[in-house]
Structures are given as C-alpha cells and as structure tokens.
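Re: weekly structure request thread

Next one in the queue (529 aa):
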Amino acid sequence: MLVSIQGLTAALPPGADRPLAIDDVSLDIAANEIVCIVGESGSGKSMTAHAVMGLLPRGVAVTGGRILFDGADLLQDSPEAMRKRRGRDIAMIFQDPMTALNPVVAIGRQVTEQIRAHRAISEREARQQVVDLLSQVGLNDAVVLLSAYPHQLSGGQRQRVMIAMALSLSPRLLIADEPTTALDVTTQAQILKLIKKIQTERQMSVLFITHDFGVVADMADRVAVMRLGQVLENGVVAQILERPAHSYTRALIAAVPKGACAPLDSAEGGPLVEVRGLSKTFRRGGLFSSRGAVTVVDDVSLTLNRGETLGIVGESGSGKSTLARCVIRLLEPDSGAVLFDGADIAKMKSGQLRPLRRRIQMVFQDHHSSLNPRQRIGDIITAGPRAYGENKAAVLARAADILGLVGLNLESLDRFPHEFSGGQRQRIGLARALMLRPDVLIADEPVSALDVTVQAQVLKLLDDVRRKMNLAMLFITHDMRVAAEVCHRVMVMRNGKVLESGPTHTLFSAPASDYTKSLLAAIPGRGRL
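Done, posted below.
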C-alpha cells in the first residue's frame, strides 16, 4: 500500500462551525490506483488532502492518527523533509489555478523553479523539460507559452500548466483537488482523460477530490464518501454506484443532473423578447490572438415566450454571456434589434431604458463579486426598489416575502454576504433580482461552481420561481445536463453563432450538429448514473 491514512483527526480553531475538520478518517491508496473522495463543501475532503501534503491552514492542527507513505509516517517528518517530498514524491493539482499560479511570474519560470529546486540541472535543461511537459499535457506552442502569464491563458490551459507542474518531478502520488469544477464540460472531459492517461502511462497513484459522482463514475477505482469530516462509506466504485449503503451517498448520486429532460409545464404565453440579427464585435489583442476585430455574437436571433425557459448552451468564448448582456443592454450591440414587448430596447437612449430595466433582471455567475461585501443583505436586495422611489415599509414587507420564496429567513437581512454559503449567496442574488418583480430573468451560469446537491436545490428553486411569477427566463450554461433540468428549449452556440435550437428533448435525442453531440458525449458519468 503506497498511502495508508489511519484514524486521522484534525481540530478546527475555536469558534468554528464544528470541533473537528477531519474526524477519525482512515483510507488506503494502493500503487497505480485512482481513489476518489467525494462530498460537499465542508465535508473535509480537501482538508484530508492538505494534511497528506503537510499544508493544513493555520489554526487547523492534527490531533491524532497517522499518514503512512511507503511505510513512513508523514506526520513525523520535519518541515524540511516535507518540503523535499512535495513535488518529488507527492504533488498536487489545486482547484483554482489562478490562485495557485503566481500572476506576475511567467509560466516557464514557475515550472523551471520547481524542477531546479529538486534537481541539479541547468536553466537550459530545465526549460527543455518544461517544453516537453507542456507538450505532453496537450498544450500547443509550448515554447511560446514559456513567456506567457497565467491571465493570458484560458481556464483549461491554466489547469494543464498545473498538471505539467505537478508531473515535473515524476511523483508517485498525485493529488487532484477539484481540478475541473468550474470548467466547461468538454474541457473537463479533456482534463479527466488526460489525468487518467498520464496515471496509466506513469503508473502513479491518484487521490482525486470531487463533489460530482459523474466524475467519480469516469475516474475512480475506489471511492470514499465524506460528510462533516467523517468517511461514511468507501469501496469499489461499481459497488458504491450500484448499491450505496448510506442515505447521504444516495442523495449525492440522485442530485447529479442526468440530462433526462424531465417534463416541464408548457409555456403558453406569447413572445415577450425577440432578438433579430444581433451582432457584437470587440477589438482585442494578446499573446495568442492577432489584433483586430473579433465578432463575439454573430447575427443571432431568438424568441423568448412568457413563462418559458430558453437555455443558451456553449463553451466559454461561445458568446452566450455577451449575448445576454446585449439583451439586457449592459453592452451595446453593434447591429440588430432586441424587441421587448414590441419596443426595440437596442436603440433606446439611457433615459428611455430606465423604466424598462426593472422588468429585465439578471442573476450573475459569480456570487462573490456580484454582492457588495460591505453591505448588509437587507440593503443589497432593497436597493433596486428604493432607487425607483418605492415606500420603505412596502419594500421591507416585499423583502420578507421574497426571502421566504428563495428559502431564506428574515434574520438574513442583517447579515453580510461572507456569512452565507455559496448556495445561499446565489439565493440572495436571485432575491435581489426578484425584488423588482421582473418579467424576464436572465440567469448567467448560476450553478456552475456549486455542489451538486446545492445545484439541484437552486435549479428547482429557479423553476419554481418561474412558474409562480410567470417569468420568461434566459438560462445560460455550459452543461447540457443542467439545461435539461429547467429548459423548455435549448439554443446551442459556438464562436458567436447559433448552431441549432429546438425543444430540449429533441436536441438530446437527435442532435443535428457534431458540436452538440460532443457536448452530450462530454457529460461525466453518462450511461452509468
């Protein structure tokens, strides 16, 4: 057994939501094996991985147990000994490459520094090794990439750089901490396939951390299910998927969107929004793109009916979010028409738009940056009606009703955003949008970074709100599974163009374009869950 975690216990600092971050966890990882730890945020899965790396956050202390690596207890290693092990014996792919990579140091320098810290080789030799590594993880123009900075790369490229860095010293154990959580499904599929390919070629052991049983189905040999710091069950992946023993495991599996196109109530209202020939072009330049005009939305037309949810599906860069921002006039379209209740808002001046803005509201993807961290929730969600001159008492009464509708209580009004979980913050963003009683709700990737159970709750909430308020909803996502849960119709975009559109069940059962077929094929765990 390469790694044997035995009775590992770690205490949280005083005042935390529970006493123990890790509670008597035992787990084995054999040579040349992929073991997945699955659970929601706060389950202790990342804490367990960081304990193996000797990287527990300040204030979290191991109070019991052992972590045996090839028979030696890592908890007995000195800080210097652990520094020598990291990278050489045990390497880690972190969840967010933007925070793990130094933003002011070129990619080549960051990887060569790690190699030269452990091996006595020249700068030239190290750079050549980095070029080879970047090529192995599927990055083209590796020589050019050496001079690139993290912000100049896409999410998938940054994650591949992290994989190259982790592999640079040929470790025996690779820890992958949620490496695909916020990536497009096609990019996620590529990264998962890459990790499995490299694991097979190098015969490494992999500890893979995720909240998604779809990923588990594609990756794992064995799986451990964690909740609140404890391992609830573990075993061979087929056994856990087919015969889960614990109710929490069954709930996690049930929460994974199946892409089964559940029947939705019919949307009987007439057209509320009509987009005709909309185009938007940006001028940009950078390391991997020539300067000049880039058409992000290219002659797009759509119709959104009252009471209907229209899904816009595509990868990052497909133009779906830019299209939504043009519809809501957060961006100025270059050409085309956006008819809202018959009036072309694409050509309206700011003063004409103001009365209409309250009728079209948006729920943003990033629930961190879209809520002011210095304002209380009460001020955040009532700001819109107050800006329109509504009576304070009436606004507060409506806030109580809206909070109840989205599953929050009145005490939430006096708290700050950081006091809420990710799913709760997404509910707050929805409450803010609903306070103005809109006719159209635009939801821009509202569940892409949430745990699957929270994701299922938010999706159900959005559909319930649509029905109760008879909203027209434009739902933006990169995940066809998610679209199937809430959308009556789906429009597939790529490179600014609409490739196909139609009823959701039609696109799932008989997709016309190869790109739609690739999106469906990239769904993790499809056919096994």
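The chain has a mean pLDDT of 88. The CA atoms of residues 256 and 452 lie 6 Å apart.
Next request, please.
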